[in-house]
Amino acid sequence: MQVHSFLHSDTETYTHVLADVQQQVCAIIDPVLDFDAKSGRTATTSVDEVIAFVNDHGWELVYIIETHAHADHISGAIHVKEALGGQLVIGQHITEVQKIFKQIFNFDSSFRTDASQFDI
Predict the structure, then answer these.
(1) What string of pLDDT tens digits covers the 120 residues of the chain?
(2) φ/ψ of residue 13, rounded to 5
(3) For 59, which DSSP code?
(4) Are 42 and 53 found together in one domain?
(5) Could you tell me the residue range of the domain that residue 9 belongs to?
(6) What gap in Å lies between CA 102 and CA 33, rounded to an integer?
(7) Whole-number Å distance between alpha carbons of 44 and 31
(8) What is the pTM (predicted TM-score) of this model?
């Protein structure tokens, strides 16, 4: 197994690639989406570097793992999934976080709190 870490300097958070080089498979942990607070725009520059790294090694992405709900950055998981496939996974207690966020931010009924946004 190999672990490769990518620092997102704006948020001082890491995205990790965990790879089984013999099996040619990997997982991406906590992918970060770029966010410009001044413009309110997102970008994929940082996470595209991780995607290119996986592609350059010819690895198949099996899992995109979110370790927790992130208050310090925006997740790039959907962009990774669109680019590389893989299953998006998170712990079962995300439903509690979703319920809290729904209440705090006054989200309407279209905001699901059943973790159905995740594969596992």
Answers:
(1) 999 999 999 888 899 999 999 999 999 999 998 988 888 888 999 999 999 999 999 999 999 998 866 565 678 888 999 999 999 887 665 666 656 666 666 777 776 666 565 555
(2) -120, 160
(3) P
(4) yes
(5) 2-89
(6) 22
(7) 10
(8) 0.79
